[in-house]
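This week, think about what follows.
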Amino acid sequence: MANIYIATCLAWRQGNALLQALAQHLQAELLPWQEIIPERIGGGALLPLAAWDYSEQPQAYLDWLAALEAAQVRLINPRAVQTWNIRKSYLADLYAQGLPVTPSIVLSAQHRTDWQKQIAAAGWENPVIKPLIGQSGKGVQRLTQMTNLNSAYPQGALLQAFIHAPFGEVCLIYLQGEYFHAVHRRPAPQEWRANSAYGVEILPISVLPHWRKAADRLMQALPFQPAYARIDGLIQEDNAFICNEIELIEPALYLPPERIGEAAKLLLQ
């Protein structure tokens, strides 16, 4: 069997318990991506499931992916998939196609002087702003007149309409293009961000058919079939599902312990 690696980050060198269990099934080594030298693992396989700090050095991460590809490392997901997903502009593109995505526009770093005009033209009341390249909920906030746009979003930003969704998010996980399972991310009291950095609670859930249908549409709209994907959808007050993120680089897959072996086999197909 070729060498298999799960790329982690410097702050979490061994990932978390679920990733350690997955690594055991894959017979994989957990190692920070900054310490993985592509030329030394040529012919092996790599999953970046715990590269939780790539947004701090996005160009270095992209260069590293290019070096891995050049060294004929099997990237799961491939470089093209990760490059497409690293900038949240994909959400604006999918929204423009009429897919069930939170209304989104890109605030480009190259056209910073146009931001206020774009924000006004969108007409959204206290919208959400997030870094164009970001992770773990960092920099995700409601936009107010007090927000310092110039210093907070040097790489650009994504502006989204605020969706009132007190139920939180449902995350649907797909492996090799097929639905695998789902979880409910319930926000902490008085919090609207369903993210681990803000005290979210992870709960089991039975997926409603129309949620699954919406997520399936989004999977079919992707320009590739990823080995793994997580479709995060806000559940609105009328129970409608609207996609807030698609995670194709380092998502928590929330794998049930009893299905980790099954997931490991699918990931390597």
Q: What stands out?
A: The chain has a mean pLDDT of 95.
